[in-house]
């Protein structure tokens, strides 16, 4: 089972994660969420570094999370549905001091839209309309 998402730049076929019974051929929405977090944190970090006058010769952002497929499959009522325990790791090659790096990470966290959205979830609503 898949759906197609028009991103405005390309069409993405999203599918179910293999742990939940998918074939792995489509993009997993959980992976896409982590990719959005990494992308946002990466560009934010670069913008903050530029603003601070720091040179990052190389930088890597990694995000991972725990996922218990039993929740989304409905086979364990006590298992959460969704990603849990999101973790981000930054690695970079820079001559910046430890204090400057701490400030860089603090400001990256502060100004990263996806990070802030996940850290402080917005009020959500669901509605229906007929085609």
Q: Secondary-structure map with pairings?
A:
Layout: E1 2-6, E2 11-15, E3 27-28, H1 29-52, E4 56-67, H2 69-73, E5 83-94, H3 98-111, H4 113-119
Notable characteristics:
131 residues, GMP Synthetase, Chain A, domain 3, three-stranded mixed β-sheet, two-stranded antiparallel sheet, 5 strands, OsmC/Ohr_hydroprdx_reductase, KH_dom-like_a/b, OsmC/Ohr_fam
Question: What does this protein structure show overall?
Answer:
It comes from Sphaerotilus montanus. With 131 residues, the protein is an alpha+beta fold. It is built from 4 helices and 5 strands. Strands 1-2-3 form a 3-stranded mixed β-sheet. A hairpin with a 4-residue loop joins strand 1 (2-6) and strand 2. The radius of gyration is 18 Å and the shape is elongated. The protein starts with a strand and ends in a 12-residue tail after the last helix. The model has no long low-confidence stretch (mean pLDDT 93).
């Amino acid at each position: 089972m898949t759906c197609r998402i028009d991103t405005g730049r390309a069409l993405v076929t999203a599918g179910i994660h293999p742990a939940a019974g998918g074939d792995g051929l489509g993009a997993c929405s959980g992976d896409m969420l982590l990719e959005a977090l990494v992308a946002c944190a990466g560009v934010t970090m670069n913008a903050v570094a530029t603003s601070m006058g720091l040179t990052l010769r190389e930088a890597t952002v990694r995000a991972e999370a725990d996922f218990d497929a039993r929740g989304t499959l409905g086979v364990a009522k006590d298992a959460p549905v969704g990603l849990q325990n999101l973790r981000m790791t930054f690695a970079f090659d820079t001559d910046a001091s430890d204090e400057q790096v701490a400030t860089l990470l603090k400001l990256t966290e502060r100004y990263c839209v996806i990070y802030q959205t996940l850290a402080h979830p917005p009020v959500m609503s669901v509605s229906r309309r007929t085609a």
